[in-house]
Amino acid sequence: MSDSFLNELNPIQRQAVENTKGPVMIIAGAGSGKTRVLTYRIAHLLNSGVDAFNILSLTFTNKAAREMKERIHKIVKGSEASNLWMGTFHSVFARILRFEAEKLGYPSNFTIYDTDDSKSLIKTILGEMQLDDKIYKPSLVLNRISNAKNNLISAAQYLAQAEVLEEDRQAGKPKLGLVYEAYEKRCFKASAMDFDDLLFKTNVLLKKYPEILYKYQQKFRYILVDEYQDTNFSQYLIVKKLAAMYQNICVVGDDAQSIYAFRGANIQNILNFEKDYPELKVFKLEQNYRSTKTIVQAANSVIRNNKEQLKKVVWTDNVVGERIRLLKASTDNEEATLVANGIFDLRMNMQLPNSDIAILYRTNSQSRSMEESLRKRGIPYRIYGGLSFYKRKEIKDLLAYCRLTINPNDEEALKRVINYPARGIGKTSLEKIIVAAGQHGKSLWDTIEGMALYRPLNGASAQKVIDFVTMIKSFQHGLKTASAYDLAMHIARSSGLLKELGIDKTPEGISKHENVLELLNGIQEFVHTLPESDDEVAERTLDVFMQDIALLTDADENEKEDPNRVSLMTIHAAKGLEYPAVFVVGMEENLFPSQLSLNSREELEEERRLFYVAITRAEKYLTLSSATTRFRWGQVTHSEPSRFLEEIDPSLLDIPVASEPKGFLDFSSDRSDFGGFTPRNTSSTLKTKSAKPQELNPIQPLKGFTPLKKINPDTPQNPNIKSTFIADDVSKLQTGMEVVHERFGPGKVINIEGRTGELKATIFFQEVGQKQLLLKFARLKINE
DNA sequence: CTGTCCTCACTTTTT
DNA sequence: GTGAGGACAG
User: Cα(A543)–Cα(A180) distance, rounded to whole angstroms?
Assistant: First the structure.
């Protein structure tokens, strides 16, 4: 058994990997090889004989979990790695809760309510309590409930706290606690848990049943938590309890990248970790392997403005690299055009594939203008997040039928489909059912199933509801016998859903129909896929398929499509990812930082950390763009440049020269003789500016100074060399010639093709490998 | 009860 | 500009 991979680590990383006993905290700066340390640590545990079943690894997103699993598979041979418990907090504890559900009075097939379900239920409750949903805005109410749950305050405890009630009274929402209470009851009656419940109920379970706690303490002897800075109190306590016996707990985090406080994440968890475990070992990973010096320094100069942070010095041995480019546009559409042009130039001049490029924004709504400009330019792209596949109406409709079949008590699913497709059960009927259910303390389903007993409706409407009940029951027969696909297809057909969608021949209607078919396809794939690990449920029935659906965010169904696409996503979604070239768009006050964050220092600091995350996604090229006017909620609004721009050390920026008449807006004007991504300034300014960052950086350790080693292709060249790049030179170019490229360094021409003016050369560079270059853009120097 | 038209709120960020 | 939800007529 070889641990040779350990040699790939630097001394601190290696210590962080090898100290597997006892509590460990790894403070990992951006780009410091955190994921590598985590994966190697797990691999090292497995190689030293720890059973995969005894390792619990918690991540923040499904994507992160998936990636880590893949990487571990690559290092550890055999199928052992499949047995790791690795996933998000929510998915791991949902799994445990399903196993232990009866202890809490839940069936193991409980539904997981997503945010829409929760809001819809709150609206229903507000209606019943005759509260104005303008005052009790469902999203705010849900927020408040969510906060309570994340701090382990039940409805009963909420109602028992005088100050909390007073707070609500002050805010003009005195009944909020009662809404919480009703919500809690309704979820329970519907056999449903919302996202926060998955953590809350886990806490309840572990507290109420010491023997269950003991069982999982024994099982999870080694616990690893990624993105620890983003955990909330509820998650913190679960981890603390599980780790209490063996104390083999390793948390990894970076306080500078904490961007989920809005959802209850608590930086204190990372700051207090030391108090919880006195013999804690702390490892600080401060060397950044990802980005250029310029980018690292820019990030440092921004984050320096935050008051609350752990002492940490992120530095890098990498090259200085390009300066950060600023784009200023007059409108959001122009901004998008500039970004698309910038991407075009990067592909041309730096030979970057689309997949090396990402556009990051603060809000999902900003994606639209970007999409348009990319489409115009013919640049393929992929949007991450946004309206995910599983959030589309038609998908939710079919899933609601499936949910109802599995758990008929699921109130939100029932409300969603009882009259869709329309079957004559309208609002009035539904209201009568809800009232009757409330009176008898039954779920909606129990009320309509026992129509004869509870009599919520009479005559024709009653008959329609009875028919609906009969239909759902017929679906239920398939649960144990039919495969997930057969049953789902049967449901889609007999419910009338497919027919309904087939009628609509508008492009949107067709797309909806296709989406449902795609979901059915996905279910079929599931049926044909074998369980990954030993303890995964082996049956391929519908209820197994549905278990984790609510916890899925982005559908990675599209993997089959062209992978060479530009990525578009929110900065939040970009966390943990890295791209050679990054565009951060919408650098404007009231957008980034968000208007809603300007009330408090804490919130502003979170926005700043978000900007820090955005900057540190970039490896080589970073572009920040803004617009002076922007279309927002149907109106043109004026906006000022973001304050964050001023926080970047100006010497790191490629600031458009004022005297240049709007020229900098136009990427394409003279790119033929001047690489589009090259600083435009005169050579004298370039010289002084490129020299400055190193001198200025006060926190750069001495070793960070790159000694005069071999010429690095990424180091900005002395602009005076430019004069030797004469176009005539290029025309003389022939196969076999030795050339020097400004960025790729020395290379040899392998092939030349194309017609004059569009000549394309294939060149093998010693340092970066083979590239295809358009000669009119590539500034090549022929070596004679 | 159904379908259409109109109004209005909407833009933080995610499990 | 858009999508959800309410008002209203059939």
Answer: 29
Name every residue whose Cβ is closer than 8 Å to that of residue A388 and which is 6 or more positions away in sequence. A552, A553, A554, A555
- Strand C and chain A: which residues 363-422 have CB closer than 7 Å? 393
Give the whole-angstrom CA distance, residue A567 versus residue A384.
Answer: 7
Measured CA to CA, the distance from residue A481 to residue A541 in angstroms comes to: 8
Element counts in chain A: helices (H) and strands (E): 32, 24
Strand B lies under 7 A from the Cβ of residue A368:
no
Question: Which strand (E) or helix (H) includes residue A224?
Answer: strand A222-225
What predicted TM-score, i.e. pTM, was given to this entire model? 0.81
How many other CB atoms are there within 10 angstroms of residue A278's CB atom?
7
Reference A179, options A126, A108, A232, A102; nearest CA is A126
Q: Which stretches of A319-411 are assigned E, i.e. beta strand?
A: 324-329, 357-361, 381-383
Nearest by Cα to A124 from A147, A141, A107, A112? A141
Give residue-wise pLDDT tens across range A736-773. Answer: 777 776 555 667 777 666 545 455 566 776 655 566 65
DSSP A594: B
- The answer to whether A35 is a known catalytic residue is yes
User: What residue has token string 């701090």?
Assistant: A151
Please tell me the distance from the alpha carbon of residue A195 to that of residue A115, in angstroms, as a whole number: 8
Q: What's the pLDDT tens digit per position in A119-154? A: 999 988 888 888 888 888 888 899 899 999 999 999
